[in-house]
Design goal:
Elements lengths: L3 E4 L3 H14 L2 E7 L6 H5 L2 E6 L10 H11 L3 E3 L9 H9 L3 E2 L4 H8 L1 H10 L15 H11 L3 E9 L2 E6 L2 H19 L4 E5 L5 E9 L5 E13 L2 E7 L6 H17 L4 E9 L5 E7 L6 H8 L3 H9 L16 E8 L1 E2 L5 E2 L2 E3 L2 E2 L6 E5 L5 E3 L6 E9 L2 H14 L1 E2 L6 H9 L1 H4 L7 H4 L2 H11 L4 H11 L2 H9 L1 H11 L1
Parallel strand pairs: 1-2, 1-4, 2-3, 4-5
Antiparallel strand pairs: 6-7, 6-8, 9-10, 9-12, 10-11, 11-14, 12-13, 14-21, 15-16, 17-20, 18-22, 19-21
């Protein structure tokens, strides 16, 4: 049985794993870079070890260094979280070789899931519908052109080794395809050192709906319901909810059976996610398996009543699933907002720096997974995600209004955040009616609506006086003038 877990990650996901391990009496080992020496996960773990410089390649992606810590600390298992090494089959294989339990799928299964083309072939063999496109890798831009003209524009150029929205380009004509082919190839080589491109039909007005799945080492498999993840920017999710407003029980069962079939097709063990695009006509198309715990897993925990990290540990320990599909029931509605350190008006550019003060929302059915505390720092070296704010309600409307109240209570000083945008989205009639799609922000002009909301925001006289005093202070002016990258942005805001 697992007794000590090294968490090969940082931030809120490291804290999330530590929380469950503490409840189970399992010791935890944190690793940290120069940048994270004062981070919360370092303070909360049973032990903590420095692994290198701030750059991920020299710390959180340094497999040999992390292995050294696992061995010296006596960890018998590793939880990779998400990002970094979580879907790196070489790292999983390194753990297997050294008799360390990798809390996730096997290296072979992960390798298959990570190769979009081989995974697609496995799905077709298992009769899981996939998006129309190239039957295999395209060898060059000319072949991509031929396929695109056969299936019709628009099409997506996708790197087999992409992920998290990277290595994907939407093209609408031959010229864009030729240019995009070079870009996707270079992005893939830059990210993972190799490139292989496939062409897929771009389905307009689609929804991104994913299913949580679990399969133990004895071949028992279930799905843990769906999540709607359609509200995105640059192919990366912003707001998720469960259940999806367009999935009834009959559809849930039908697609759920496909998900179980998909997990069997790649011999998947532990928790993972099967992702689908839902076309406007209601058809579902498999796109990929994420071989790890998802960022948005808390809302599935809220409606299922399960602790997914505990379930991961149990499966890794060789225990059979403690339930059958018929035992699982959805209870209520849950929403997650990814609280990112980004400037919405600068094309979601990262916003970094000290956070002098923060107030974390709380209350009935409010959950916030975060690494923030007063005096912490948002680092430029890592992902912009600061917190996962989740709310549950007996009805969708109860969950939505709780989320709005929690967003209003969330105070983060020192960096720009995505909170104002989320308020605009959750207040929009389109969101309330469930008119979701992957182009939601653009289709309903959400950035323009956010601008109007900010213009119409009521400010009382005392607040206005304080704001004016700050803006006209010599200290404020000197800070803005000393930061050339911020000057233009702030000038627009002051105007």
């Amino acid at each position: 049985m697992i007794e000590k877990v090294l968490i090969a990650n940082r931030g809120e996901i490291a804290l999330r794993v530590i929380r469950t391990c503490k409840a189970l009496g399992i010791k935890t080992v944190a690793v940290y870079s120069d940048e994270d020496y004062n981070s919360m996960h370092v303070k909360q773990a049973s032990e903590a070890y420095h692994i290198g410089e701030a750059a991920p390649a020299k710390s959180y992606l340094n497999q040999e260094k992390i292995l050294d810590v696992m061995l010296s600390a006596g960890a018998d298992a590793v939880h990779p979280g998400y990002g970094f090494l979580s879907e790196n089959d070489d790292f999983a294989r390194l753990c297997e070789k050294n008799k360390i339990t990798f809390i996730g799928p096997t290296a072979d299964s992960m390798n298959l899931c990570g190769d979009k083309m081989r995974c697609k072939a496995a799905m077709l063999k298992a009769q899981v519908p996939t998006v129309p496109g190239s039957p295999g890798l395209v060898k060059d831009a000319d072949e991509a052109l031929s396929i695109a003209n056969d299936i019709g524009y628009p099409v997506l150029l996708k790197s087999v080794y992409g992920g998290g929205g990277r290595g994907i380009r939407l093209v609408t004509n031959d010229n864009e395809l030729l240019e995009g082919f070079e870009t996707v190839t270079s992005e893939s080589i830059s990210a993972v050192g190799k490139s292989a491109i496939i062409v897929e039909k771009f389905l307009e007005k689609t929804r991104h709906i994913e299913y949580q799945m679990a399969r133990d080492q004895h071949g028992n498999a279930v799905h843990l319901f769906e999540r709607e993840c359609s509200i995105q920017r640059r192919n990366q999710k912003l707001i998720e909810q469960t259940p999806s407003p367009v999935v009834d029980q009959k559809t849930r069962d039908r697609i759920g059976e496909l998900v179980v079939r998909a997990s069997e097709a790649v011999d998947y063990t532990n928790l993972g996610t099967a992702e689908f695009l839902r076309a406007d006509n209601g058809e579902f198309y498999f796109i990929e398996i994420n071989a790890r715990l998802q960022v948005e897993h808390p809302i599935s925990e809220m409606v299922s009543g399960l602790d997914f990290v505990k379930l991961q540990l149990d499966i890794a320990n060789g225990e059979p699933l403690p339930f059958k599909q018929s035992d699982l029931k959805m209870n209520g509605y849950a929403i997650e907002c990814r609280i990112n350190a980004e400037d919405t008006f600068l094309d979601f550019a990262p916003s970094t720096g000290p956070v002098p003060d923060v107030i974390i929302p709380s209350g009935p059915s409010v959950r916030c997974d975060t690494y923030l505390y007063p005096g912490c720092t948002v680092s430029p070296f890592y992902d912009s995600l600061m917190a996962k704010l989740c709310t549950w309600g007996q009805t969708f409307e109860e969950s939505r209004t709780r989320m709005l109240a929690a967003l209003n209570d969330f105070y983060i000083q020192g960096v720009e955040t995505s909170i104002p945008l989320y308020k605009t989205i959750l207040n929009s009639e389109e969101y309330k009616k469930g008119e979701l799609s992957t182009d939601f922000l653009k289709r309903f002009n959400m950035i323009d609506k956010l601008t109007e909301d900010l213009k119409n925001e009521k400010i009382n006289k005392s607040e206005a006086a304080i704001a004016a005093a700050i803006v006209h202070s010599e200290y404020f002016k000197s800070r803005i003038q000393s930061d050339s990258s911020a000057s233009a942005n702030w000038k627009n805001k002051l105007d």
